[in-house]
Write a structure and sequence with these properties.
Helix content is 64%, strand content 0%. It is mostly helical. It folds into two domains: 12-119, RNA polymerase sigma factor, region 2, helix turn helix motif (Rna Polymerase Sigma Factor, Chain: A); 126-207, Arc Repressor Mutant, subunit A (Orthogonal Bundle), CATH 1.10.10. The longest helix is centred in the last third of the chain and has 22 residues, at 173-194.
C-alpha cells in the first residue's frame, strides 16, 4: 500500500554538522561522492585520482560544514560544494605537477586549463541536479505501486503525454496527473532533505533525462 504522508526530516546539511551522526554522514557520502567522482572523471582524471579528490572533498566538507550558512542571496550549497570540489581538484593537480609527468598528466593539465573559471557553469549544476534526482528516485521508488511510478516515469522522465501514459497503463488521464503529482512531490521532499536546491523540480523539464 502506498504511503500518503511523510514527515520531512531535518535537512541533511544540518544533520551533518554533528560529526557523531554517522547515519547522516553515510547518507551524505552516498549522495555526493558519486557526483564528485563523476565530475573529476569527465575532466580527464583516472579512476584512482578521481577517488582521491572525492575523498579529499569529503574531508574538507567535514571540517568546514560548520561554517557554511545557507543564505540564498549569498549562494547555495550547490555552489559552495562546487567551489570546494574545484579547489581540491586543482590542488591535486598542482601536487601532481611537482612529480615527473608523462603524457597522461600533460593531457590532464591541458583539460584543466581549458575548463571555465569557477564562476562559469561548466556542467556542474546539471550534474548536481541529476545526481540528486537519481538518488531521490531510488529512495522513493519502493513507496509507490508500479502503475503510479510508471505514470510518473512516462510523463516526467520520458516526456510522453498524459493521454499516452493513460492508454498504456489502462487508467484515466486524471489518474496519471495525480500519480505524477504525488511522486514529484515526494521526490521534491527528498531533495529538500538532502540539499537546499529543490527549485529545479518545479520545472518538469528538469525531470527529463
Amino acid at each position: 500500500m502506498e504511503q500518503v504522508a511523510h514527515r520531512t526530516r531535518p535537512s541533511l546539511l544540518l544533520r551533518i554538522r554533528d560529526s557523531q551522526d554517522e547515519r547522516a554522514w553515510r547518507e551524505f557520502v552516498d549522495i555526493y561522492t558519486p557526483l564528485i567522482f563523476g565530475y573529476c572523471q569527465k575532466r580527464g582524471f583516472q579512476e584512482a585520482d578521481a577517488a582521491d579528490v572525492a575523498q579529499d572533498v569529503m574531508q574538507t566538507v567535514a571540517h568546514s560544514i560548520g561554517t557554511f550558512s545557507y543564505q540564498r542571496e549569498k549562494g547555495t550549497f550547490r555552489s559552495w560544494l562546487y567551489t570546494v570540489t574545484r579547489t581540491r581538484l586543482l590542488n591535486f593537480h598542482k601536487r601532481q605537477q611537482r612529480q615527473p609527468r608523462g603524457t597522461g598528466e600533460t593531457a590532464v593539465q591541458e583539460l584543466l586549463e581549458a575548463q571555465p573559471c569557477p564562476d562559469t557553469d561548466d556542467g556542474w549544476d546539471q550534474e548536481f541536479h541529476q545526481r540528486l534526482l537519481d538518488w531521490a528516485c531510488s529512495q522513493v521508488r519502493g513507496e509507490f505501486q508500479n502503475s503510479t511510478w510508471q505514470a510518473f516515469h512516462f510523463t516526467a522522465v520520458q516526456g510522453r503525454s498524459p493521454k499516452e501514459a493513460a492508454q498504456a497503463l489502462g487508467v484515466s488521464v486524471g489518474a496519471v496527473y495525480i500519480a505524477r503529482s504525488r511522486v514529484t512531490a515526494r521526490i521534491r521532499q527528498k531533495v529538500c532533505e538532502a540539499s537546499d536546491d529543490s527549485a529545479f523540480l518545479s520545472d518538469s523539464k528538469k525531470l527529463s533525462g
